[in-house]
## 1
Amino acid sequence: DTAVSQTPKYLVTQMGNDKSIKCEQNLGHDTMYWYKQDSKKFLKIMFSYNNKELIINETVPNRFSPKSPDKAHLNLHINSLELGDSAVYFCASSQEVSASGANVLTFGAGSRLTVL
Amino acid sequence: KNQVEQSPQSLIILEGKNCTLQCNYTVSPFSNLRWYKQDTGRGPVSLTIMTFSENTKSNGRYTATLDADTKQSSLHITASQLSDSASYICVVKWMIPGGYNKLIFGAGTRLAVHP
């Protein structure tokens, strides 16, 4: 199946731990994203990578570090987890590179992170 | 401030009925506006994408309208089905001066269709 797949789907961990969420897309897209959906259900961009290069880096704590080993993968590593990091994290991909394309984002199913 | 506001926050309708969801935005300049459907526990799925020059676009029982002058959009669902129960998210693509785009998401309208 062509899709954006992210693992794990659920992650429960203690404050202070380090954890990673993995994302893979087999759609051949050039651009991948990480979004955070908070309790108010707003989706907010965190990072965007195009062909393994960072092109958007929103103001997120340095504890969050994306890593893109190749253009089909964009992993999110989080150090020293805090209670406020609890949210659903969505990976997405698209083919658009430039500013004016009407690209469609394909989202993964989300990874629900709970920090205790 | 670039914002996308949706109303109502939640909506309950009976199966077979029609409904209209609203989206107002202050994003400028904007490139396009899209509506996504997000089922519980799933990622958003695109329904429609409209550029500023398009007034209406349909996708099956979903019809989106856009008034770029008043910065308003609506999503009309006809003959609702139980499977339409989901959150509907309005997303506006903001053309950031300098080259990048950014998608600004609304908080969504939670629709529940009851038999």
Note: Chain B has a mean pLDDT of 91.
## 2
Amino acid sequence: QQPVQSPQAVILREGEDAVINCSSSKALYSVHWYRQKHGEAPVFLMILLKGGEQKGHDKISASFNEKKQQSSLYLTASQLSYSGTYFCGTEPRYNQGGKLIFGQGTELSVKP
Amino acid sequence: DTAVSQTPKYLVTQMGNDKSIKCEQNLGHDTMYWYKQDSKKFLKIMFSYNNKELIINETVPNRFSPKSPDKAHLNLHINSLELGDSAVYFCASSPSATEQFFGPGTRLTVL
């Protein structure tokens, strides 16, 4: 079952912060985050494997609450280059092997 | 020095035709995937191969047949193309069910 992302779209000014949420109805082994710019391929941002794990990548970080089957992506001090569609990909706990089920995407636009 | 490459980049064809998309990765990864992304950007896994062995085979019409001649290549053949097959098809690879590296995509348009 497809995870649900919220919000569906968000518009920011440069320097503002945003949070994108990903919620699954299934027990999860891992959550992946990808960013896709218009007309390009998805690009890997980070993977979260353990309950409560948090990771950071420059000014983008994420958390994973294994018990709630939720993950959040935090974008701080947004830059124009952050614009794109963000996807969470969930790997079910009992059906691993790299199979990712992607959310519907969150479109992020950063304006000057 | 492209990591994951796909050919062709664009494919325009008539309904009922048969077409193939090729994928190659030079990252030395063991696992390769095919994804379909529709016009609403929904990204769905179709197949996965690990070292030439099929490990994921989602509910996909049997008109779609993947083939992996070696672990660096994964091709997708589509028979009797239908309008609903129009989409962007992405190939991806990963070292071991971890981060996935996507190819540039093949935009298929069925007329």
Note: The interface with chain B takes residues 32, 36, 40-44, 47, 85, 87, 91, 96-102, 104-105 of chain A (CB under 8 Å).
